[in-house]
């Protein structure tokens, strides 16, 4: 046993896969200790931007006004402020106007905010009539100019509160353009590392919790499938006869009928209300044993008439002892590899089922598949909200890649023909 | 020839048995769902109606129309009779359309997308695999991790990655549908071009997924074959390497064909989910809308058609295999 482990950990592929997998598992356990939020809590509610808030550090505006400001004289502050206000459309519109007003196109660089604005302020004249320009377009340029002047002003902002008795506005403070707050002094700052999803949940803790649930589904389903496959394979292979015929009948049947079809039918018949993460795992486990049973049976048949097995039989050992001591050790490595593959495929099946809308009940757990389901349902890819689905796909891929890598590593250890 | 007949009839018998099992599962499992789907449709249709007797009448008419008021076994035989005539009943969610009319169009989209993709992926994967085993070195070192990566990636993952890169960032290909939404299916050049453009992303996402798995399998198989006596003998005889690779490829392919017969169900399942990502008008997307609409005649029929497709593909491959490799037929007829 010790030597086998040593050998396994000498395989580079296995070690790389193992490290990636353990990193994910450890994160799933460690992360909730530091971040104690409910992963399914809706935190963003906005009718304007929708619920997909982009990743970033969210600083409370009210609190930052109340925090004592520092004055920093940074010379590019004004340029950056204006740059963030000028959309690419505005820039091309400015360029268009300038070209029509007779500025050579080579002098205009829409990416250089400073020179573009200088050209604009020097050349723009609201009264100037450009031939062929519609009235609406002329008004657009006038509005653009006014808003640019607002941005270009160097004065700060005043804020006021309403007097409760008279209703008049009273100045309570002001901010200059050179005022800064230290983000660590603002009482309410929330880091949304991966933004929020379609329901306004913080994606990061949701992703960690979903990974945990998906791994649990994978492991439960993998263990069930491997156990059933192992027991049936051993029974069919060792006993032969009627048992073999019956097992092989079902194995052949379910090898051809696509697993996903069975999963769809069973999950649908269970019904939305009764589908929990563990139920789904059990369903996947009960449909995925076929391959293991097949392979175990084939190996047992080749082992069954070996000399050491016959010797045990002659010595009068009971069947369970023969299976346990004379046959199982020979197929243990194969069973370990099968388990790893079962876990990986169970995680993928859960994801496929959830994308089809047949995953675990949505309100109590998050799984990787459910996160994808909602991201696709709310059209995150075409809206450009990559943070709602890309991290999920990366995690699924990493989990399945690491498990496959471990499997290939084991394969090379136990199949010397495949070694370099 | 007697051996072939036996092999063929044995496979045919299996085909019929699996078909019957699949048919039973297809009928009974969705109907075991808790709750009354007809009540759900009636509730949806009767929204805002306060006339209770009216709603009751609608409900009664619908249960008769869909036949849900009869005992399960009677329903089964009626269903069996209808299916033989190609009638899968009415769709619950898209009533008054029939299931057959919905599926007739989506079936062809799926067949035209998946079968070429699966076969091309299989061929490319096997060629890459045999080359990896023969060339070794950097080619093998680069191909193997990539293959493990690709074979571990689910089809929907590959689909999303292709969709984001080529559909959204680069904007080379359209991201959804089977043809431009402004076109009506006809045989014009514009429509065919639109179909070809829409075909690319779903097609390559299925192909790229398939390549990895086959390459890994073929590599192991070819390494084994390259150590076989006939390869050594051929080398002693001074036969060119190109010729030897052909021998190795042919021998290594044999188990891979069985592998394809066994894997085709899984691959079709994965590809169905990939269809959903691209809203491709095939069976996957139909299945999704049927599930959302709790439309069990539609779910039954879709899964039945998927199963039958897989069974036929599997049967064809096994029959072909009997011709390619006489040993199998001999072993089976013993």
Strand percent estimate of chain A = 5-15%
Tally the helices of chain B: 13
Oligomer: heterodimer
* Overall outline of chain B: globular
What is the helix tally of chain A?
17
SS-based structural class of chain A? mainly alpha
Strands ordered across the widest β-sheet of chain A: 1-6
Largest sheet of chain B: none
Task: Tell me the total number of β-strands of chain A.
Answer: 6
Let me know the average pLDDT of chain A: 84
Instruction: Please estimate the helix content of chain A.
Output: 55-70%
Strand/helix succession of chain A: HHEHEHHHHEEEEHHHHHHHHHH
- Give the N-terminus to C-terminus distance of chain A in angstroms: 24 Å
- Mean pLDDT rating of chain B: 81
Radius of gyration of chain B: 25 Å
What's the topology here?
The complex is a heterodimer of chains A (420) and B (334).
Chain A: H1 2-8, H2 12-34, E1 56-59, H3 61-66, E2 70-71, H4 77-85, H5 88-100, H6 113-123, H7 135-152, E3 157-162, E4 169-175, E5 179-180, E6 189-192, H8 203-239, H9 241-256, H10 259-270, H11 277-287, H12 290-304, H13 307-314, H14 319-355, H15 368-377, H16 380-383, H17 390-414
Antiparallel strand pairs in A: 1-6, 2-5, 3-4
Helix pairs in contact in A: 2-8, 2-17, 5-6, 8-9, 8-11, 8-12, 8-14, 8-15, 9-12, 10-11, 12-14, 13-14, 14-15, 14-17, 15-17
Chain B: H1 2-31, H2 37-45, H3 52-66, H4 72-84, H5 99-135, H6 137-152, H7 155-169, H8 189-226, H9 229-236, H10 241-277, H11 283-292, H12 296-324, H13 326-333
Helix pairs in contact in B: 1-12, 1-13, 2-3, 5-6, 5-8, 5-10, 5-12, 6-8, 7-8, 7-10, 8-10, 10-11, 10-12, 11-12, 12-13
């Amino acid at each position: 046993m010790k030597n086998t482990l040593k050998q396994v950990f000498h395989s580079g592929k296995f070690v790389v896969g193992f490290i990636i997998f353990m990193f994910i598992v450890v994160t799933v356990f460690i992360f909730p200790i530091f971040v104690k939020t409910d992963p399914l809590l809706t935190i963003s509610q906005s009718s304007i931007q929708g619920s997909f808030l982009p990743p970033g550090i969210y600083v409370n505006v009210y609190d930052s006004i109340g925090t004592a400001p520092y004055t920093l004289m940074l010379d590019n502050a004004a340029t950056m402020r204006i740059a963030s206000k000028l959309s690419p459309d505005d820039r091309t519109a400015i360029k268009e106007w300038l070209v029509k007003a007779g500025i050579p196109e080579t002098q205009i660089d829409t990416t250089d905010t400073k020179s573009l604005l200088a050209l604009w302020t020097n050349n723009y004249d609201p009264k100037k009539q450009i031939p062929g320009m519609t009235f609406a377009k002329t008004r657009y340029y006038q509005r653009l100019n006014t808003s640019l002047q607002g941005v270009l002003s160097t004065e700060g902002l005043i804020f006021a509160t309403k007097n409760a008795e008279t209703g008049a506005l009273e100045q309570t403070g002001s901010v200059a353009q050179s005022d800064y707050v230290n983000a660590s002094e603002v009482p309410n700052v929330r880091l949304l590392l991966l933004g929020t999803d379609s329901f306004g949940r913080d994606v990061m803790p949701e992703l960690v919790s979903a990974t945990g649930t998906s791994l649990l589904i994978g492991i439960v389903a993998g263990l069930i499938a491997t156990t059933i496959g192992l027991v049936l394979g051993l029974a069919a292979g060792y006993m032969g006869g009627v048992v073999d015929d019956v097992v092989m009948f079902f194995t052949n049947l379910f090898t051809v009928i696509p697993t996903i079809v069975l999963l769809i039918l069973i999950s649908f018949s269970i019904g939305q209300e009764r589908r929990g993460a563990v139920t789904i795992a059990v369903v996947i486990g009960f449909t995925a044993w076929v391959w293991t049973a097949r392979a175990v049976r084939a190996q047992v048949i080749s082992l069954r008439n070996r000399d050491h097995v016959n010797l045990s039989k002659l010595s009068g050992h009971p069947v369970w002892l023969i299976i346990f001591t004379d046959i199982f050790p020979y197929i243990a490595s194969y069973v370990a590899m099968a388990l790893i593959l079962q876990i990986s495929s169970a995680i993928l099946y859960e994801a496929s089922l959830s994308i089809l809308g047949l995953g675990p009940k949505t309100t109590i757990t998050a799984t990787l598949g459910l996160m994808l389901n909602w991201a696709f349902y709310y059209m995150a890819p075409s809206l450009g909200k990559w943070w709602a689905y890309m991290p999920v796909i990366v995690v699924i891929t990493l989990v399945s890649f690491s498990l496959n890598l471990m499997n290939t590593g084991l394969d090379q250890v136990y199949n010397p023909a495949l070694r370099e | 020839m007697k051996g072939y007949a036996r092999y063929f009839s044995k496979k045919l018998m299996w085909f019929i048995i699996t078909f019957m099992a699949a048919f039973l599962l297809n009928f009974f499992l969705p109907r075991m769902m808790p709750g009354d789907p007809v009540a759900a449709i009636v509730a949806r249709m009767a929204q805002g109606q306060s006339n209770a007797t009216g709603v009751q009448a609608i409900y009664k008419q619908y249960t008769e129309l869909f036949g849900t008021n009869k005992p399960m076994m009677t329903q089964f035989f009626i269903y069996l009779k209808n299916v033989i005539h190609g009638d899968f009943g009415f769709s619950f969610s898209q009533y008054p359309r029939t299931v057959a009319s919905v599926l007739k169009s989506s079936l062809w989209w799926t067949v035209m997308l998946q079968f070429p993709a699966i076969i091309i992926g299989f061929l490319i994967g096997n060629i890459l695999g045999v080359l990896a085993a023969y060339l070794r070195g950097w080619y093998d070192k680069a191909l193997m991790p990539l293959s493990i990566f690709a074979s571990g990636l689910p089809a929907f993952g590959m689909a999303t990655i292709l969709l984001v890169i080529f559909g959204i960032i680069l904007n080379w290909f359209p991201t959804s549908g089977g043809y431009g939404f402004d076109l009506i299916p006809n045989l014009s050049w514009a429509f065919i071009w639109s179909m070809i453009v829409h075909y690319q992303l779903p097609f390559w996402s299925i192909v790229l997924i398939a390549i990895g798995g086959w390459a890994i399998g073929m590599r192991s198989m070819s390494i084994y074959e390259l150590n076989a006596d006939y390869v050594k003998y051929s080398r002693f005889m001074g036969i060119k390497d190109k010729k030897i690779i052909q021998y190795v490829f042919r021998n290594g392919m044999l188990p891979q064909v069985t592998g394809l017969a066994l894997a085709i169900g899984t691959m079709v399942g994965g590809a169905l989910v990939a269809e959903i990502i691209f809203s491709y008008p095939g069976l996957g997307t139909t299945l999704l809308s049927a599930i959302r609409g709790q439309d069990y005649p539609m779910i039954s029929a879709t899964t039945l058609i998927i199963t039958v497709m897989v069974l036929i593909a599997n049967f064809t491959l096994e029959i072909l295999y009997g011709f390619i490799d006489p040993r199998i037929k001999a072993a089976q007829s013993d």
